[in-house]
Amino acid sequence: MSLTRREFLGLAGAAAVAGVGVPAAYGGFVEAWAYEVTETVIRIRELPERFEGFRIAQVSDVHHGRLVSLEEVRKVVRLANETRADMVALTGDYTTDLPKFVEPCVEVLSELKAPEGVFAVLGNHDHNTDGPLTRATLRRRGIEVLTNQNTELRRGADVLQLAGVDDWGWGKADFARAMRGVDTSRPSLLLSHEPMALDVPETRGVSLILSGHTHGGQVSLPWVGAPAAWFWEHLKYLRGSYESEGTQLYVSRGTGVIGLPVRLGAPPEVAVIRLQRA
Fold first, then answer.
1. CA-CA distances (angstroms) from residue 250 to 154, 205, 241?
2. In the chain, at which end, N or C, are there fewer CB atoms within 10 A of the end residue's CB?
């Protein structure tokens, strides 16, 4: 029998809860909504002076739907706004399954505020729901969606390059197009829902990739780790910081759930990335 990732996470969560009793059940169901605001310093070679200390609030994998209420999305938006970040990065999977969830979710996400803007890419669940609808709704609400394209953030004469790639799992990613015109000898950021972007030749030299998708495993057991990572090679970059050939990657645990409203050992996260000159 072949399981989807969502089905597997649901079964793993149910098995974990059933296997270790009431304390784990309580911890799982509470942990699913116990949001953490983390801050990680990423050192960037030749980061322009005006971008020293630049802070990015990353919100990922909100998954508004039958398991994740709008009230939970509002909590996430409030936490992100309280960080007073310079920019907000949305790295995909805003809803799960049904198009009726798109407009209400995006209406709440449009309350995200940052002086340098709110930028987004789509994830696999967005395409599974309705990719064109999700993209159009985000843009209509003032969120800039980077669909295999790039732009620049400017502070006076200083520039930070920003690219965004569409979802790899749905065959929508065009890394060559997303990176066209980006000078990887200068500081650059890439938004990619799926962390496997770190392994793509076109991203070599990118200063930092911000991704989500994995939920940090959603269920991560003591001494065992995240069972989901045993079965899907594209989950090898599970959470936190990685580096390959000079390109850095940060994988957010995201804030939502799929399968079951359970998280164990992988609490939901609003990640703040602070850039410093290497």
1. 23, 15, 5
2. N
Can you read off the two tokens belonging to residue 104? Answer: 């209400």
pLDDT tens digits for range 95-112: 998 999 999 999 999 999
Cα-based distances in Å from 205 to 135, 183, 185, 243, 273: 28, 9, 7, 11, 19
Res. 5: pLDDT tops 80: no
CA-nearest of 168, 166, 210 to 188 is 210
User: Which residues on adjacent β-strands are paired with residue 209?
Assistant: 190, 249
Phi-psi region of 265 (alpha: psi -120 to 50; beta: other; left: phi over 0): left
For residue range 42-67, list pLDDT tens digits in order.
Answer: 999 999 999 999 999 999 999 999 99
Inter-residue contact 27 to 20 (CB < 8 Å) = no
* Domain at 118, CATH number: 3.60.21.10
> β-strand 55-59 against 240-244: which pairing, if any?
unpaired
Q: Is residue 233 part of a domain?
A: yes
Q: Is 1 a member of any domain?
A: no
Range of the domain at 262: 36-277
* Count of structural domains, the chain: 1
**How does pLDDT run across 28-37, given as a tens digit for each residue?**
567 899 999 9
Encoded amino acid at 24, one letter:
A
User: Is there a domain that residue 25 lies in?
Assistant: no
Distance CA 221, CA 15 (A): 11
The Cα 146–Cα 61 span in angstroms is 17
Position 4 pLDDT exceeds 60: no
**Strand 240-244, strand 247-251: pairing:** antiparallel
Dig out the tokens for 165 from the structure: 């790639």
Q: How far is the C-alpha of 166 from the C-alpha of 139, rounded, in Å? A: 15
